[in-house]
Amino acid sequence: MFPPVFPVYVRALAPLHEWAPLVWMSGVVCLWATRYTHQLAARWGSRFYVMSAAIRPLGILLIGAGWLALYSPGPEYTMLAVGSVGWLPWGSWTEVLCWVAIVLFFAFGAWSAVVLGLRQSFLYRRLDDGLVTRGPYALVRHPQFLAAIGLTFFGILLYNPSEPPPYALGVYYHSVAANWALLTVALWVLSILEDRELAAHFGEEYVEYAKRVPRLFPI
Asked: How many domains are there within the chain?
């Protein structure tokens, strides 16, 4: 459901830097708006599918753009001025391990999207879609959320612009670590809302599934 968000400088997103947290949070709201699949589909019919097919991709785009904008300084800064902005070299075992973790979380997210289906992941979910409990959904109930949390976490370990660049010093609003914590909380809340909606639709089948499989973290 979420695009891979790596620690890379994107000059075109620099104008969004000041509004980056609001941009990606707007994307989360878009996903929330299409969360109640079965309730809204029952009420609106085909109109819901059209709305979801428009809003869900927009939400994914906003989350990706907002997160990458956190890594994009204002126009007065360049990649040379802030030093390590952009793809980092393989200069230490820490960086190597972070890249391995990023690849694994990306693969986990891609696997989740394939198992659930590209339509259900990125466009809309039909009222008659069955409950998916195989593959990554046998490990956690919301594997795509877990993939997004893991990708952004290890991206922060690779490069956190809230420390060396002067534009970010003391600005908690643009702290990538603070944004990651807020993203994790937002996805946790979103997973709770989705659990309630799925339990209301699938009934005892989902209740039994929830007893076997943890919500977001495989612990």
From this structure: 1
Whether the CB-CB separation of 162 and 190 falls below 8 Å is answered with no
3-class SS of residue 179: helix
Residue 5 lies inside a defined structural domain of this protein: no
Neighbours of 209 (CB within 10 A): 19
Q: What is the DSSP string of 95-137?
A: HHHHHHHHHHHHHHHHHHHHHH-HHHHHT---TTPPPP-SGGG
The 10s digit of each residue's pLDDT in 101-140 is: 888 999 999 999 888 887 877 777 777 778 888 889 999 9
Q: Which domain range does residue 159 map to?
A: 11-212
Tokens (6 digits) for 171: 């600005």
Residue 218 counted as domain residue: no
Q: What is the pLDDT of residues 154-182, one digit of tens each?
A: 888 776 654 444 444 444 456 777 888 88
Q: Which two tokens stand for residue 58?
A: 């927009």
Q: Is residue 96 part of a domain?
A: yes
